[in-house]
Specification:
By secondary structure, the protein is of the alpha+beta class. Helix content is 25%, strand content 8%. The protein has 2 helices and 2 strands, in the order H-E-E-H. It has a two-stranded antiparallel sheet with strand order 1-2. Helix 1 packs across helix 2. The longest helix is centred in the middle third of the chain and has 17 residues. The N and C termini lie far apart (61 Å). The mean pLDDT is 82.
Length: 114
């Protein structure tokens, strides 16, 4: 099977896929290393919830689970991850987002209080 479009498709990785790569080095210069933001997303599941109620809100155990998680995340803030000797990443949290489901909102509210 042959097609004119097959020749246009490339499997080779394009290192400047987002247009943020550093410019090519001038003759005699070392190649610049690209530096950008590192983002880590934490996906957190809600705490235990009441299956018997219509609202399906957090149980007392679910609230305690959320509180303990909040304390653990708080302890992580400000820590430095050593990726390599030249680059360290400090853990910072920019925000808390959740769905509008009651148990998810309750978990997010407890986490954001700490």
């Amino acid at each position: 099977w042959a097609s004119d479009t097959c020749g246009l498709w490339q499997r080779e990785w394009q290192p400047d896929w987002d247009g943020r790569a550093p410019p090519p080095p001038k003759e005699g210069e070392e190649k610049m290393k690209s530096q950008g933001r590192v983002r880590h997303l934490f996906f957190i599941r809600h705490g235990q919830y009441d299956l018997e109620s219509d609202e399906k809100g957090l149980t007392a155990l679910g609230k305690e689970q959320s509180r303990l998680l909040a304390l653990r995340l708080k302890a992580m803030m400000g820590q430095v991850l050593q990726e390599n000797p030249k680059r360290a990443i400090e853990i910072k949290f920019a925000g808390v987002w959740s769905s509008d489901v009651l148990r998810a909102r309750q978990t997010a509210e407890i986490i954001s209080e700490h």
